[in-house]
UniProtKB/TrEMBL annotation:
Signal peptide: none annotated. It comes from Prymnesium parvum. GO terms for molecular function: metal ion binding; methyltransferase activity. One of its GO terms (biological process) is methylation. This is SET domain-containing protein.
């Protein structure tokens, strides 16, 4: 199947337009029953991209332009007029009657389709020099605004990637780290959102929210001003991440209210973690911390029978010794004598989640690329694409 010149064509002569159905990425994904643009592109062999918002799909077209085949040095020149939503073909050189009409489909087309037909192209699209471009294209078309290359150039095995809080629960986990680590995590959050302190006429200015219209204030030393960093990071996450479908903003206000109501307890946890070394496991860590919180802040934990300092110290000492699971269960049972069982269970669960997120994640393999630990969403979005990249032959 191809298209051929019925009569001679002179160089520069208009040959015809590319005709088909104008479609947005969303319409293309719906038409081909795909969840991302890359998958749709693989199924739509006749999709001609105008720009990021529009393509022409000639899948069902009967126009001769649908039958132009690929050639690296084709005899047709393509002119894309995105604003006019139009693609035109011109003769790139003099063309004889009966000669097949061809044009270069471009690198982008062949990145996911293997090699062109024999004799039509001298480029080897499996060559490593195309690999980085392929991954960039894949990550971009499957959802990333800015494709990251951590799959191509991963950090050394054993590298710990620290927490960058971008969601409500990740922000909570950052706020219960020891204060210096908490400040560092909050600065990483602000840097991600473009709100980190920047020098402005010799004085650092911090932005409370996303975008140029967000409130800005001077900040003398970001590293020593945890309260300001917390407020700024909260503003960014509430505005950009928490619940973009909640037009009323109630969920954002609820989260900000939760932070305000629990500020004293978050400070208690930061102080605890700054003073107390880590125990043999996260489970031992959180059990000891729960005992401390029930003693120190009984009103927030529905404590009915006050826990004495001596009793608290004994429970913490037991957890610190690295006791076995059964012994640790006895500590939890003792805590349940002072506060409702369900509350103790929920407290241990949230503390364990915060500790795990705060510990970051670790690179454990390059082949295949693999992380261990609590993987935050901005990394999971990239590293979880490994099966897709393997399917398309990039990894």
């Amino acid at each position: 199947m191809g298209a051929f010149a019925e009569q001679p064509l002179r160089r520069g002569e208009w040959v015809g337009p590319y005709l088909g159905t104008l479609a947005t990425p969303e319409e293309t994904m719906a038409r081909y029953n795909c969840t991302n643009v890359l998958s749709a592109s693989l199924r739509a062999d006749y999709l001609f991209r105008l720009d990021d918002e529009r393509s022409i799909d000639a899948q069902n077209s009967t126009h001769f332009s649908r039958y132009f085949n690929h050639a690296q040095h084709g005899n047709l020149e393509v002119v894309v007029r995105a604003e006019e939503q139009r693609v035109d073909f011109y003769a790139a050189r003099d063309i004889a009657a009966g000669e097949e009409l061809t044009f270069d489909y471009g690198v982008r087309y062949w990145l996911w389709r293997g090699q062109p037909a024999a004799g039509s192209d001298t480029r080897n699209f499996s060559d490593p020099r195309f690999r980085e471009l392929a991954v960039r294209e894949t990550l971009t078309l499957t959802g990333d605004v800015e494709a990251e290359l951590t799959l191509l150039h991963p950090p050394p095995v054993g590298t710990v990637l620290p927490l960058v809080p971008l969601t409500a629960v990740e922000l909570q986990a950052a706020l219960v780290l020891p204060e210096a680590e908490s400040c560092a995590a909050l600065l990483r959050c602000l840097d991600y959102f473009g709100a980190a302190p920047r020098s402005k006429e010799g004085v650092q200015a911090i932005r409370f929210g996303v975008g140029v219209e967000a409130r800005q204030e001077p900040l003398l030393d970001a590293r020593d001003n945890h309260a300001v960093l917390q407020e700024a990071a909260t503003a960014c996450i509430v505005q950009a991440i928490l619940d973009p479908n909640d037009a009323s903003g109630a969920s954002g206000r609820d989260f900000a209210a939760w932070l305000a109501a629990n500020g004293a307890e978050l400070e208690l946890i930061r102080r605890w973690r700054g003073r107390v070394p880590r125990f043999s496991s996260v489970q031992h860590d959180v059990t000891a911390l729960a005992a401390y919180l029930l003693w120190k802040n009984p009103g927030a934990h529905l404590v009915s029978a006050p826990l004495t300092k001596a009793g608290c110290d004994a429970l913490i000492a037991t957890a610190a010794r690295g006791c076995d699971e059964e012994c640790l269960g006895d500590v939890v049972a003792t805590l349940e004598q002072h506060a409702p069982r369900e509350h103790v269970s929920d407290l241990l669960a949230i503390l364990q989640l915060w500790y795990t997120l705060g510990d970051g994640c670790t690179v454990i393999s390059h082949n295949p690329p693999k992380l261990a630990g609590a993987i935050p969403q901005h990394l999971r979005a990239i590293w979880d694409r490994v099966p897709l990249l393997v399917e398309f032959g990039f990894l």
